[in-house]
Design brief:
The protein contains nine helices and nine strands. It has helices spanning 23-31, 74-89, 105-115, 134-151, 169-178, 197-210, 255-259, 264-281, 301-306; strands at 9-16, 50-54, 58-64, 92-96, 122-126, 157-160, 222-230, 241-249, 285-293. It has a six-stranded mixed beta sheet, sandwiched between helices. A three-stranded mixed beta sheet has the order 7-8-9. The longest helix has 18 residues, at 134-151. The two termini are 38 Å apart. Bound molecules: guanosine-5'-triphosphate (GTP).
Length: 309
């Protein structure tokens, strides 16, 4: 690539918004590959996974943060710390406000917090445009404008988007790129995320383990990877990746939910996770899952460290 710092832009953007606002889905739509775990339940994004959008004129590095929320546990506090540290470091903050929902106290709190990071430009994104009629969108955009004014934020842009239909995803990229500093690419071409593969694999396993039992186990699952190695002695064209992982639960009573009758559910979890991991890494996988109990891991600092928070 013959780009110079004069005609190339490179920098960081982060999506913020209440839980379920569509941040992860939009990140995936921009990057074009499933790297961030999306779910219909709030607060499943634990890691600031970066997706990288490579364009001829720019490199846009997306930092996906967990939702800011009133902390009730030590984990909650850590999550909020991660969010605020991220905000101070990026070149543009993109606030996601779903058109399918009224702007509420949660959004006001969040926008108020974002306003405190005064120097960073802010873009408002009206997500889930496909779910609403045009007149509702017009009303929503006016509310976003008013929210900016009452919080002391001058939006650099307000963009309606649908990450699921693809509507205006490119416009979101354009508006974010405009606000990046000039500079050389920060990552090699082709990198989609710099998150260690172990973290992504752990997230895929956690997602599979939560599938169908989210109501019973909303935030009580953590996954660690003990080992991830290519099996020795395999022919070069038939590699096999051995992955040894642990699913941590808070209480004994949760074991049955995850494991199921005679281990049937755990087998399904393993099969689903394996499929996702193979799609992500492009290598056949042998996945060994162990279910363990780490009592009250969400409130125990020692456990949190061990589990990587
Ligand atoms: N119809 C529609 N649904 C969407 C769109 N974007 C996201 N969703 C859905 O909204 C839900 C939440 O999306 P996520 O991308 O996980 O939201 P998030 O803001 O990352 O959520 P947290 O990780 O909990 O903070 C999922 O069920 C998505 O499929 C969209 O553009 N249109």
């Amino acid at each position: 690539m013959s780009s110079t710092a004069e005609n190339f832009k490179a920098g960081f953007a982060c999506f913020v918004g209440r839980p379920n606002a569509g941040k992860s889905t939009l990140t995936n739509a921009l990057v074009g590959k499933k790297i961030v775990i999306t779910s219909s339940k709030p607060q499943t994004t634990r890691h600031a996974v970066r997706g990288i959008v490579h364009r001829p004129d720019a490199q846009l590095i997306l930092v996906d943060t967990p939702g800011l929320h009133k902390p009730r546990t030590l984990l909650g506090e850590r999550l909020n710390d991660v969010v605020k540290t991220t905000w101070a470091e990026v070149d543009v903050i993109a606030v996601c406000l779903p058109a399918s929902e009224k702007i509420g106290p949660g959004d006001r709190f969040l926008v108020g917090e974002a306003a405190k990071v005064a120097k960073t430009p802010k873009v408002a994104i009206a997500t889930k445009a496909d779910l609403v009629e045009p007149d509702r969108m017009v009303e929503h955009l006016a509310e976003i404008q008013a929210l900016g004014e009452s919080s002391g934020i001058e939006w650099a842009a307000i963009v309606p988007v649908s990450a699921t239909s693809g509507y205006q995803v490119d416009v979101v990229a354009d508006e974010l790129v405009k606000l990046l500093p000039e500079g050389f690419p920060l990552y090699p071409d082709g990198d989609i995320t710099d998150e260690p593969e172990e973290v992504l694999v752990g997230e895929l396993i956690r997602e599979a383990a939560l599938e169908g039992v989210r109501d019973e186990l909303p935030h009580s699952i953590a996954v660690t990877i003990d080992e991830m190695t290519l099996r020795e002695g395999r022919p070069e064209d038939k590699p096999l990746l051995d992955i040894y992982a642990n699913i941590f639960l808070e209480r004994d009573s949760q074991k049955g939910i995850v494991i199921g009758h005679k281990g049937a559910r755990l087998r399904d979890v393993g099969a689903a996770a394996r499929q996702q991991i193979e799609a992500l890494l492009g290598t056949p996988v042998y996945l060994d899952l162990h279910v363990k109990i780490a009592k009250n891991w969400q409130t125990d600092a020692k456990h949190l460290r061990k589990l990587g928070f």
